[in-house]
Write a structure and sequence with these properties.
Helix content: 25-40%
Number of strands: 8
Structural class: alpha/beta
Strand order of the largest sheet: 2-1-6-7-8
Largest sheet: 5 strands, parallel
Shape: globular
Order of helices and strands: HEHEEEEHHEHEHEHH
Radius of gyration: 17 Å
Length: 225
């Protein structure tokens, strides 16, 4: 049984659990593209807090790309799942090849999504990382580790749906985690959405345009840079 109609519905519902952060300029939402962007967009609109993106890519197991053996961010911070790497016998050379491919995609998205807009200031701020759900959590863990080096005051994860075990595991990794639902058995993130179609680059750019290249008098409302 689906919990959410789509990512827009998920974002609107998740916003209710983040109401304590409304209208705070020391808080920033960072969405993991592509799926996290429409979720974060609805939260940013409702709570009137700044939003931007945090670029991170899953490192898929060769031949079984949906299974994550790790993740990489745009500054080459990597997190690897050694258990999966050992069980599939994945060599260092193969890991390097997958990482190089994903790095190229990260750079493409950076140019496309951000253009000449500078990255947001993280130091001393409360960062809320947003995605459309958590399965293994490898991608989100890489995001958390990359953000730690930027000295935020707090890191919070907020997702509409997650595996119960993954949600619990993150409690020791971040200052707070909000999982809208933790159904068991989990099956996968997409199982809990009626519409879980892939978000396009054009849709991501459109949402970022609306919050980060708005009319001048509206920019402050969304804390754009």
């Amino acid at each position: 049984m689906q919990i959410y109609k789509n990512r827009v519905d998920a974002g609107r519902k998740l916003a209710g659990e983040l109401s304590e952060y409304a209208n705070r300029k020391d808080v920033i939402l960072l969405a993991l593209p592509r799926g996290g962007v429409p979720v974060a967009y609805e939260i940013a609109k409702q709570l009137k807090i700044p939003m931007d993106i945090f670029l991170i890519r899953k490192l898929g197991v060769p031949g079984n790309e949906e299974l994550a053996m790790g993740a990489i961010d745009s500054e080459d911070v990597r997190v690897l799942n050694q258990d999966i790497i050992r069980s599939f016998g994945i060599s260092d050379r193969m890991i390097a090849k997958v990482a190089a491919d994903e790095r190229r995609e990260l750079h493409r998205r950076e140019r496309l999504y951000r253009g000449d807009r500078k990255r947001p200031e993280i130091k001393g701020r409360t960062v809320i990382l947003i995605d459309d759900g958590l399965a293994t959590g490898a991608t989100m863990l890489a995001a958390v580790k990359a953000l730690r080096s930027k000295n935020p005051s707090n890191i919070i994860i907020a997702v509409p749906v997650a595996s119960f075990d993954t949600c619990r595991a993150f409690e020791k990794e971040v200052d707070n985690i909000i999982c809208g639902a933790t159904p068991e058995p989990f099956y996968g993130v997409g199982a809990w959405y009626e519409d879980f179609r892939q978000i396009t680059d054009e849709e991501v750019c459109d949402m970022l345009e609306k919050v980060c290249h708005y009319k001048k008098q509206r920019r402050a409302e969304y804390g754009c840079y």
